[in-house]
Design brief:
Layout (H helix, E strand, L loop, with lengths): L1 H16 L10 H15 L10
Length: about 50
């Protein structure tokens, strides 16, 4: 776990030295449709949970 923490901290330091803004390449609708398709494929689209 310590090695993972060190690697993440190093990535953050590197990113902060040369930050770049995140640019969305898909619309919100495209992302939601992709998510819906994925949930249908894995069979979780219509399952009820204790919270439903």
């Amino acid at each position: 776990m310590k090695a993972l923490e060190v690697d993440i901290a190093a990535w953050i330091d590197t990113w902060n030295d040369n930050p770049r803004p995140f640019t969305w390449t898909k619309t919100a609708g495209e992302i939601l449709n992709s998510l819906a398709d994925y949930l249908t494929k894995v069979g979780t689209g219509n399952q009820k949970t204790e919270k439903n």
